[in-house]
Amino acid sequence: MKKAISILAAAALVCSCAQDRNQILKVYNWSDYIDETVIDEFEDWYEEQTGEPVEVIYQTFDVNETMLSKIEKGKEDYDVVCPSDYIIERMLASDLLLPIDRDFGDTPNYIDDNLSPYIRSCFDKMEGGSKNANDYAVGYMWGTTGILYNAKYVTDEEASSWDILRNPKFADKIFIKDSARDVFSQIIIFLRQDDLKSGKVTLDELMHDSSQEALDAVENYMKQVKPLVAGWEADFGKDQMTQERGWVSLNWSGDGVWAIEEAEEMGVELRYALPKEGFTVWFDGWVIPKYAKNTKAAKYWINFMSRPDIVIRNVDVTGYVSVSGASEVLEAFTDDSYEPLDLSYFFGPQADSVCADPVLYPDRADIERSTQEHDWGARTPDLVAMWGRVKGENASASTGIVIGVVLAAALAFAVYKRLNNRRGSKKRRK
Ligand code: SPD
Fold it and tell me: In angstroms, what is the span from residue 282 Cα to ligand 1's centroid?
């Protein structure tokens, strides 16, 4: 499917050369992050609302850093992209974003009509200097980072702590998100759990701690985890879990929801836990980069993505949860087969006892153990370097094995050839 989208995007790029740029909308989003049928619908809806045609060129990325580099270094003219919280902060600080104008004429403003109060307050906490993130970014999906696990091999108790990642019982069965920032945050929370309990440090302070000491501590921990890791992944981990190649995965809740549902159909029981030491919540939001060429269609795209029926379809297909606090969304995801949860923080006071999937919508008590990540500014390259060392050594170990096997095979072949030649020449000499 991804390949098909890329081919379509490339074809669209070629055809679009002759087209007016005002009739093209270049969207850059995470992979597996939309119900693709809504893309065509947006084109029709935009024409209905504005009387102008538009063609969407839709491209995807797997990690924030790829997207950021295309815009920051490549100055690519994407009209609307979908970074995570700490990258939004970074883009704000680097003056890479345009404010999102909310004038939609007669078209309803779905963005502000439905935004959850929780999301608004989390965006208020984003650090963008003098800029408020709510003016430059509109939330799309949000979720938690936790442990997805196979209930046949892993106990609930084991999955209740981040320490599971260095349990030798799960050697070669662990998948880790290839996201330095997300992994760092969970591990530092785990390593500083005593200081958190005693009140010596807060979760928020930990998210700002980019000291060498913190980096070294996480690197040291990850070096214990690394020999047990079956793969670092951006997207394929969920499939590895449903097929039982992985038993434990540091993952995002949306991948968790998707994998739990898929696995159920295959008779595999996956569960998702939010470790007792604490964890992070994350937010991905639509922004309009300063190199955008069609800001009008970009803001209509963002508005369309906030329309409750579109929200529900995107959540259904991806497993990720929308930032929308609309009553239609609450109703769509209320499900009596679950225990009641306190979701008043998200949907408002009336939602203090709602039966819903706790992986999609964590209970207030869980949210109280969480925090949000922040940009590290000039310290980011040190984080990236640490991550490279952690994964690189892993790569070099496996690369070493492959090289060893290839060399041994080459040597064996050379010996065989030499012996054969000797036999051949002996024969000829006879
Ligand atoms: N396949 C789409 C995944 C998008 C999840 N974003 C999570 C970001 C966490 N920093």
Answer: 8
